[in-house]
Amino acid sequence: MSFVVKEEPAARPPEPKPKKIVDGGLLFLAAFTLASGLGVAWRFGAGRAWEIVLETGAFIAVLSPKIAAGLFIAGTLPMVLPRDRVAAWIGGESGWRGLVLGSVAGAAIPGGPMITFSLAAGFAAAGADLGAVIAFVSGWSLLSLNRLLIWELSFLPHDLVALRVLASLPFPLLIGWGVRVLVRRQTA
Amino acid sequence: MNILIGTLLIGGVAVWLYLGLPNSEWRRAAWLSTWEMVRFTAPRMVVALLGAGFFAELLPREHVEVLFGADARVTGALLAAGMGPLTPGGAFVSFAIGAAALKAGAAPVAVLSYVSSWSLFSLTKILAYESPLLGKRAVLLRVAVSWPVPLAIAALGGLLSA
């Protein structure tokens, strides 16, 4: 494989949308961390709290190449994803195929809830079926590969992760199907 | 080892994606978009991992074992499922808590139930993203269909590992 980058004409790339960095979620998390940190210092002494800070720093350092690559994927993939085509694949008449595609797309999509739910809203607006959209959201929730590789395997033993994935496999499909049945009953 | 395999796989995908970008304008846009992701994620990650580390230290081991241990069975899985939506922050928090609980004596089945329940029903995700972007009806339909799923996953996991 050669590492020569391409130089081809193409339409302009989409503009990145700046995100609000300090929001309620971050403040809540900071309050939670501060309270638990003070709790540790109070019960086990400031020395133990500092040890945990150092352990966490070392852990982040070990994870950082993986996190950097994951963030590059999460930042770039939505730029190159053909949204309209995906929406057509998982449209109202897409049957089980649409549910399978939605679940698989959900598992494959990198990035956090902001990206996933905006994509899901985009698919719905472009005419995708609600069951398939929810299969997509559930596939991402239960089987997200990116999250599995970056976070889950870094914390949990691999046999438990394998067990979780295996046991979760049918559910995005079943959830999507269940939502279709409910929607049909509501509109009938 | 897990971390190394994950790093290689994720790194491979990133390189593949980079080489697929059509020209330097796209590559610049990709870096900009990545930088936005870094600015957003880095503070959350550091704060969340620290919080998870402190929280794990404070977990009362004897209670964890009684409430979520192998003897707690169904009640343990139910209680664990109930804690999923209440967990603040991102994936790192729930996995770190799951790992700490496992070390403190929780049964694997209870951890499966907790992690699945967080994945599907984290209130932060639902309130901050899902409800505003997809609408309340979609959220209600999804929850109406999927509420038993964490317990089903725990039960299936228990059967598969038996």
UniProtKB/TrEMBL annotation, chain A:
The name on file for this protein is: Permease
Question: What are the entry keywords?
Answer: Membrane, Transmembrane, Transmembrane helix
Membrane-spanning residues: 21-45, 57-81, 119-141, 161-183
Originating species? Allosediminivita pacifica
TrEMBL record, chain B:
Q: Which UniProt keywords apply?
A: Membrane, Transmembrane, Transmembrane helix
Say which domain of life the source belongs to.
Bacteria
The residues that cross the membrane are 38-56, 77-100, 106-127, 139-160
Q: What is this protein called?
A: Permease
What is the scientific name of the source organism?
Allosediminivita pacifica
